[in-house]
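Workshop exercise sheet. Pairs work together: one partner reads the sequence aloud, the other fills in the structure field after running the prediction. Swap roles for the next sheet.
Pair: D.N. / O.F.
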Amino acid sequence: MEGFGSDFSAGGSGGKMDTGTIMEQVKVQIAVANAQELLQRMTDKCFKKCIGKPGSTLDNSEQKCIAMCMDRYMDSWNIVSRTYNSRLQRERARM
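Structure field:
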């Protein structure tokens, strides 16, 4: 059995990928999964908050509520994300 990663194809690079390329791909996949989860949670929360009786169309107040809810959710997400990242940087600086 060959070393880890020897079976991965790197699109014309001789069939092998370096660790850096694999790590970047994993980071991209994690970022996509996080974005999908964010969108799903935002959709669920705003739908529950804003839609009283689901129908074939949204009335004006439901549209406004959804838009404002999504804006607030994204603002909150960004604040939490920035705060978390700055805390991680402070913790890494202490090490």
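Discussion prompt: The two ends are 38 Å apart (CA to CA). What would you look at next?
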